[in-house]
Structures are given as structure tokens and as C-alpha cells.
Design a protein that fits this description.
308 residues, alpha+beta, 6-stranded antiparallel beta sheet, 5-stranded mixed beta sheet, 32% strand
Length: 308
């Protein structure tokens, strides 16, 4: 029986994808039986020596024919509608892999609602960027994708931030101390979250992150990291600072000191906003049911600032 050239090319594409996953990403690769459902393999993220149970589903396409529709920055891939429907309902995030036999390179793109577009011909198309090579550079974005879609990630971030929201809801005063390396194009800096006990001492640190926020000004990049709170200047710090202080303009975010033109220092205050209050209310309901939220007629009970 004669072996089709397309079968050989497809097999090579799967093998090269497996090699890239195992040697470049250092993750686990599991080929799936090919029943034409639109998934050829599963990949499991490995964090150092730990397997985290985070999975991606792969659709692998091999051959020059998948690179015959170039567009600025990459190539258009046109999946079948049945595959798009299957991917969108899949329990795992789906990644399309295009393998080019001439360059022996695997290019990737997430097959998500964010990237899939309906074409003018009534079908679907997906831009696979040339810069998306399945190598070490793909580790971070694909590991993040394995955590879930944008909706799931936002909910996850809120859940992880719940202890800090509860501190604010219970009357604690939270501040962010920032050290920004102003001459680094990477936006390098350090953010510390702490409790201001209003005793004249430095805040009690409860979390710390090294960040790389790119070229976006910190005044714009930092508040979205704490979407559940309003971010303003820490008034006492700026009153005592060398920088000009204008009372009443707490929302005008800026550093209060600069060290030798290299590091700028910020201290910002967090106040629980409506999103934070609403999330705590929903989270309480999800954990305990309606009984926690119900109240007798005429009661003035509140939870986190919301009357019940």
C-alpha cells in the first residue's frame, strides 16, 4: 500500500512539535488518536520539576500549503467550522501549530475567541504570527494560556486577591510601596503591599513582587493590577515629601522621591471599590449560600459596605 506524502508530512509535523515541546519548553507531550476531531495532542505544563496539572490541546498542521496565505506579521490559517465549534467548546485551551517543512519551525497561535475571526467568505480565519515560534519564548504565554481564558483569569485574580479585599472591608489601611528603575526600558520595578497601622512606622509588608511593566507609565500600569480597589496617593507620605504637594489631588499619581536619577519611590493607598465589594458579596454567596445574605425585614445589616 502506498503511503501518501501528506501523511508523511503530517507525521513529521507531530514529531517536530513533540521535539519542540520536550526540548525547548521542557513540558510533557501526549499524542492523541487522530479521529479528525481537531485535536492531535495534549501538552502538560511543567514548572521546574513540578507537574502542575495545567493542560493545552494542540491542533497540528504540517506542510507548505498552510503558509500560502501570508499577511503582515504571519500567515492566515483557515480552519473548518466544525473544528472551530469543537475548539470553542473544548474543556482545554486550544493551540494551533503550523509546521513549516523548509524552515523546520513550528509556529503557534491560541484558537480563542480573541484571535479567531469570521472571514468575508463566511468561514473562519486565524492569524498565526511569524514571531510565535514554539521555543523558549513560548513558555510564558502558553503557560498563562493553560491557566484558562481571559474570563477565568480575571476571576482567578480576584479570588487570589480576596484576602486583601477582606482586609480593606474590615477597616485595615492598605498601601503599595513601589521602587521604579526609571532608566530601564523593561519597566523594571518592585511592588510591596503592606498594612499601614497608622502608628508612624513603616507599613507591615504582606506581599512583594518584582515587575516588568514595559514602557507604560507606572501611573497607568499599576492601578489595573489592583482592579478591585481605587488607587490614590498616600496623603501623609506626600505631605512630608520633597516633591510639590497639592492637597486634594490624591488621584494625580506620581512618585514622592527620586534617588540619584535612578529609582523613583511611590506610596499609594488602596480603597475597596464597587468591583471589590461586589466580588466579596458574590464570593460570600458562593461559599455559604443565600442564608448569609438574607436578613429580617427592617434590618440595617451591611457586608463590605453594601446594604442588605
Amino acid at each position: 500500500m502506498e503511503r501518501k506524502a501528506s501523511a508523511r508530512t503530517g507525521s513529521i509535523g507531530v514529531t517536530q512539535t513533540q521535539l519542540a515541546v520536550q526540548s525547548k519548553l521542557d513540558w510533557l507531550f501526549r499524542e492523541q488518536p487522530n479521529d479528525d476531531y481537531g485535536i492531535d495532542a495534549q501538552v502538560e505544563v511543567v514548572d521546574g520539576k513540578y507537574v502542575r496539572g495545567r493542560l493545552l490541546a494542540l491542533q497540528i498542521k504540517s506542510g507548505e500549503s498552510f503558509f500560502r496565505e501570508p499577511t503582515p506579521g504571519g500567515w492566515w490559517f483557515r480552519p473548518e467550522s466544525k473544528h472551530v465549534q469543537y475548539w470553542m467548546n473544548h474543556s482545554l485551551p486550544v493551540v494551533v501549530i503550523l509546521y513549516h517543512p523548509d524552515t523546520q519551525t513550528c509556529h503557534w497561535q491560541l484558537a480563542s475567541s480573541e484571535h479567531l475571526m469570521e472571514s468575508s467568505r463566511g468561514g473562519w480565519k486565524l492569524l498565526v504570527p511569524k514571531r510565535h515560534v514554539l521555543d523558549e519564548s513560548a513558555c510564558r504565554p502558553l503557560a498563562r494560556a493553560a491557566l484558562g481564558n481571559s474570563y477565568s483569569l480575571r476571576i482567578r485574580d480576584l479570588r487570589l486577591s480576596r484576602p486583601w479585599m477582606e482586609l480593606l472591608g474590615n477597616g485595615e489601611r492598605l498601601v503599595i510601596d513601589i521602587q521604579e528603575w526609571v532608566n530601564k526600558i523593561s519597566g523594571r520595578g518592585t511592588i510591596s503591599l503592606g498594612i499601614d497601622h497608622k502608628d508612624g512606622n513603616a507599613p507591615e509588608s504582606i506581599a512583594r513582587w518584582d515587575v516588568y511593566l514595559g514602557s507604560e507609565p507606572y501611573s497607568e500600569a499599576v492601578p489595573p493590577l489592583f482592579a478591585w480597589a481605587d488607587v490614590t496617593l498616600h496623603e501623609e507620605t506626600y505631605q512630608e515629601a520633597e516633591y510639590d504637594w497639592t492637597p486634594g489631588q490624591l488621584e494625580d499619581l506620581r512618585p514622592y522621591a527620586n534617588a540619584c536619577g535612578e529609582i523613583e519611590y511611590w506610596r499609594l493607598e488602596l480603597t475597596l471599590n464597587d468591583l471589590g465589594k461586589a466580588f466579596l458579596l458574590v464570593d460570600q454567596f458562593a461559599a455559604n449560600g443565600w442564608g448569609l445574605l438574607s436578613r429580617p425585614s427592617g434590618s440595617s445589616k451591611e457586608i463590605y459596605g453594601f446594604p442588605l
